[in-house]
């Protein structure tokens, strides 16, 4: 029976970032990262769009993204292992969040908060949007916010950068599935794997992503988090703009990302997105549920071809669609990093640092207690503007 200070249940980007930040702050700490699928074929990290933005309406979410930008600026050097340096291909093409009349006030309140925190975000009128991006029908929008520091990157490169560096610093990477979380007198004592082996620990971090609810249930803890299937479609269009198009989110929640030239990825949260662990890709869903929406905003997409795509899982926090972070109140040593509702990848840097500081009992670089699990039992939700959740 092996013994650790901290065990990460799930080896995605949250786990690896937390392990890295722990070892950076205390090189003597003993850590195990347990991951059931080292190929990460169904990992929400790898299947994400890899976006990072400052455009949030909650101060703590903005500050987390600012730390993410700091980390990305030095990521290649800081995560280097020997001569191997990860390259995350961060494209700061910007994010454009378009709004309708109903959401103008909320968008402008968020804009003022972002500006107060020195974010490079500006308001664009419908005419200004049309001048920059003439393919967007200005009659369908009431304006929007453009953040020039926002952008997309290779999420797998970020994951592998953190993973490889954490291992180089001393973390043990174990391929296995956690089937039980062990506790005595409301104190975490370890985990049991599918092969029957047990590993002791003082802290267990629930970093299992879309599978986090099932991990919590092993301790009779019910989290308001559901695995929701989302489609991403790869499109070939007639659009061929001279300038790079930012990641654009339309008032309906539809978004597009220019990959190169005429090729875009496109997605949207749908009311009947299934709950569960089905990863089947349905090409017809674009025609049935997405294409009409895309045409409404971009009439030039009348001729478009679905050339590929994929599905992934969002860990949706049905309580307020924000992260659940920190130690569970009635289970000492059980640390939660769950329910990110589609914006977890971009918050991995600050969340890893925060959990590391909580575990080590040191001064917090950024207080994220607004997202503590206590808010759920106290019925005090923390809401973002819904159309900003992508």
Short description:
This protein is of the alpha/beta class. The protein contains nine helices and 20 strands.
Q: From the helix content, strand content and strand pairing, which structural class follows?
A: alpha/beta
Total helix count? 9
Give me the Rg, rounded: 21 Å
- Overall shape: globular
Architecture (CATH level 2) name of the largest domain? 3-Layer(bba) Sandwich
CATH class of the largest domain: Alpha Beta
Major sheet attributes: 8 strands, mixed
- Adjacency order of strands in the biggest sheet: 6-7-5-15-16-17-14-18
Number of strands: 20
Strand content: 25-35%
**How many domain regions?**
2
Classified in CATH, the superfamily of the largest domain is FAD/NAD(P)-binding domain
User: What oligomeric state do the depicted chains represent?
Assistant: single chain
Roughly what percent helix?
25-40%
What's the helix-strand series?
Answer: EEHEEHEHEHEEHEEEEEHEEEEHEEEHH
Low-pLDDT runs = none
Give the N-to-C terminal Cα separation: 42 Å
Name the average pLDDT: 96
CATH topology of the largest domain: FAD/NAD(P)-binding domain
List the helices and strands and how they pair.
Layout lengths: L1 E2 L2 E4 L3 H13 L5 E5 L15 E2 L6 H20 L16 E5 L4 H13 L4 E4 L1 H7 L10 E5 L3 E2 L2 H15 L2 E4 L2 E7 L2 E7 L4 E3 L2 E4 L5 H6 L7 E12 L10 E3 L5 E6 L2 E5 L16 H14 L7 E13 L6 E4 L6 E5 L9 H13 L13 H4 L13
Parallel strand pairs: 1-12, 2-3, 2-13, 3-9, 5-15, 13-20
Antiparallel strand pairs: 4-8, 5-7, 6-7, 10-11, 11-12, 14-17, 14-18, 15-16, 16-17, 19-20
